[in-house]
Amino acid sequence: MVSSGKARAHTNIALIKYWGKADEAYIIPMNNSLSVTLDRFYTETKVTFSEEYIRDVLVLNGQTVDDSEAAKIRRFMDVVRNIAGTSMYAYIESDNFVPTAAGLASSASAYAALAAACNEALNLKLTGKELSRLARRGSGSASRSIYGGFVEWEKGYDDATSYSFPIDADHWEDELAMIFVVINNKTKKVSSRAGMSHTRDTSRFYQYWLDHVDEDIASVKHAIKDKDFKYLGEVIEANGLRMHATNLGAQPPFTYMVEDSYLVMDIVHQCREAGYPCYFTMDAGPNVKILVEKKNQQAVIDALQKSFEDHQIIASDITRTNVEIIE
Ligand code: DP6
User: Is the residue at 305 inside a domain?
Assistant: First the structure.
């Protein structure tokens, strides 16, 4: 028996960050998080199960991979086999659609697409909530990539209660965009998984972070309801910086910010002063993402172009499309 399924999932960027796990094995987070799903960056994954296969094989952008990421995917496939009650291995072909060399491939879109492709191939008939729970087992942020638009991940307290759901924004997403500034990084990479674990375990500021996330989530939901961009921006910028501050409080401390990250933050401030509201956020790397209303997108790009090359500046709409089966 051979069965296959192919799915497309878009990546997401957290406006209120997930930073720290309560349970490492099941990927239960310490706090709720909230994201927007991006139109421009996505993953398409085809999975084929067969009794003939003797192990899981992963082909990423046309190349067979057999590294720590492949090991992670095999562990995820064990979760899938367990749910499906099958012992079949799989051949997984995955393509990331991100501008070349931008280094923006994301585990969020990867595991959301893989979860949906497995659901289709094995006819599991998982609901959106169950798909989000499954994607979460691969990478926490993937639980949010099941949905388009604004999405909240409810931390829950166990496997059954930790999943994401969409937030109705009355199509406000259509008026917003995110600009990525891709910054070349010469410093050693600290993965989000390692960074958040070290910070959760050692940061003097971590409890302060936890104590304020819920109010940030509530504020963002108010801003969405009122379509209040300035309020939304102020809350998300402060939340992102607070997450990065927890890393500075870790022992030993570390940071994802490099000189050019600060330069982008400066440009964002200048744009605001010039009457173009826009707000930045950063994740586990030096790149800076800027949330802006579409009507001001070009003005912000123009300002960035004075300091960065065209290929470093990538704008994306926010998509309201959920993970979908293709073919
Ligand atoms: C800073 O979802 O990549 O982007 O669950 O360990 O796979 P794992 O981590 P991951 O972490 C994302 C961290 C973040 C913030 C966010 O996306 O919420």
Answer: yes
